[in-house]
Every structure is written in structure tokens, then in C-alpha cells.
Amino acid sequence: MPSSRKQRVTDDWATHWSGFAAVGLSALLFGTLAIFGKYAQQEHLTIATLLGLRFLIAAVVLWAIVGVRRELRWPGMRRVAQLGFLSILFVGQSACYFLSLRTAPAAVTSILLYIYPVVVTMLGWLLYRERLSVRSGVSLVVATCGVALVIGITPSGHLDTAGIVFGVGAGLLYSLYIVIGERVLHATSALFTMAAVSSGAAATFLVFGAVTRSLAAFDAVGWVTVLGAALLPTVVGATLFLFGVARVGPTRASILSTVEPVATGSLAAILLAERLSPLRILGGAAVLGAASLVASGRRAPLSRATQVAP
């Protein structure tokens, strides 16, 4: 084999595996978000305080990155309005996710969020008349059965009902966020979108906290929790996902990112002593299997919007 061809093969291999490593690490970092949410609850941090500061810190870092990349420009009023609407959806999704964490195990909340790939496919069929394949139908059935196993046949006897409702709500709102993001933000860079959405979310949570007087002071341990939630999953995790997508493509990246709930469950078992029953583990595997099945059949990325951690 000529040396130039060997070099190309070596470079392709390195690019391929560096992309997988980046996506895998990003999934692990996204998995820490639920753990930080549980720590915030232990530190009596209100949701408005935690999420307001989390998104504020993330927005500052992301705008700095956008500026360095020379992507800082006025997108126009129409695009600003679209970004504002996405921010509203993302605020609702984030609030539901962290409200679910207040009463549900971290792994359960993370699994319920991952109904979104299947819901995105269903919304594409309902709203945009995209073709619904046999693969999609099977995924819907498998995901529904998986969720049933995760929450139990009688939720009130197993898990807090509010935690389940908020967890499913987070998945549904995230699905809307993704579908709309796919359709309206093709002309906006992913980092710019992340920065704008984070800014809108920060403003919403901080204003809400100020109006309701739910912003509270906290100690150094609380700051570690806030900074961890802002930097590890929101900034570093999202950036690594972007890096990985550029090297392995959106489909493979989407499939690999389904290890996030596995990371959350593992971390919750180690750090929070949470345990899931065998049936809930089976249900979680079904939900993630359905998500992977959908991702492997999509021609387009699940969205640039998925590059912001929930």
C-alpha cells in the first residue's frame, strides 16, 4: 500500500475513533446533570436559582466561544423571534426535568427523557407528513412498553406520580423543541443557537426567581453544584458532542448518545446509592433500544437543538 494511502487510512481511523470518544464522553457528562440536580436538592437550591445561574454561566462561556469563532452577528428579527420561542420550550423542558428529579430517581427521569427520539418521529409524521416506517412503528410500541415497565403498572404504588408526569413532560417538550429547531434554525450555527437559548433560559429563570422571591443564597458547596451543572454537561458536554458529530455523523452520534441514561444510572448507584428493580432496568433498555432504532433509520440529525444539555 502506498505511503500516502496508508496515511489516509490512519487519519480516517483516528478521526473516526476520536469522534466516537468525544460523543461517548459527552454522553457521560450529560449523565452528570441529573446527579447535580439531586445534589442541588440536598443543598436546598431552588430550581430558579440553580437553572438561572447554570444557564447564565453557560451563556457567558458560549458567547465567548461564538465571539472567538467570529460567528457573532445579528441574525434578524425573525430569527430572534424563533430563538425566543425555542428558549420558551427549553425553559419548560428544563423545569419539568428538574421537577421530576425532586421526587423520582435520577435514572428514571433520564430514561423518561429518552422517549424524545420516538416522539420526534411521531411529530414529524403528524405535523409534516413524513413517512412513518415499520421501524418507527416498532420503536413506538417498544418505547411504550419500556415506559410502562419503568413507571410500573400502578404509578402511585411505586413512583411518585408527579415525578413521572414531569419526566414524561420533559421528553414531550424536548421533542417539540427538536422538531421546531430542525425546521427553523438551518441558517444559524449550533453554537450560536446554544448561546442564544441559554441566554433566554437564564433570563427567564432569574426573572421568575426575582418576582417570586425564590432566589436564595447558598454556600461554597452550592457553588460547586451550580458550576458543575453549568460547565460539565452544558458547555463541555455540548461542545464534545459537536466535535463528535462532525467526525462520525449525526446518526451514529445519536445512537451512541443513548448511553446517557446508563451513565446517569451508574453514577446514581455509585454516588446516591439509588437502585432500580430488574423490571425498570428492562424497561430502560427497551426505551433506549427504541431510541437507537429510530436514530439508525433517520436521514437527518435529530437536531442541532439536541446539542444543548437538558
Kindly describe this structure:
With 310 residues, the chain is mostly helical. The protein has one domain (16-307). The protein contains twelve helices and no strands. The protein has helices spanning 3-42, 47-68, 77-103, 106-113, 116-128, 134-151, 161-184, 190-212, 220-248, 250-256, 260-271, 278-297. Helix 2 crosses helix 9 (220-248), helix 5 packs across helix 7 (161-184) and helix 10 (250-256) runs antiparallel to helix 12. The longest helix is centred in the N-terminal third of the chain and has 40 residues, at 3-42. The model is unreliable at 6-11 and 299-306 (pLDDT under 50).
User: Helix/strand/pairing class, anyone?
Assistant: mainly alpha
Q: What is the CA-atom radius of gyration, in angstroms?
A: 19 Å
Envelope shape: globular
Output the helix-strand order: HHHHHHHHHHHH
- What is the total tally of β strands? 0
Chain-averaged pLDDT: 83
Total domains, how many?
A: 1
Strand content: under 5%
Number of helices: 12
Q: Roughly how many Å apart are the termini?
A: 47 Å
What percent of the residues sit in helical stretches (DSSP H or I)?
A: over 70%
Low-confidence segments: 6-11, 299-306
Major β-sheet profile:
none
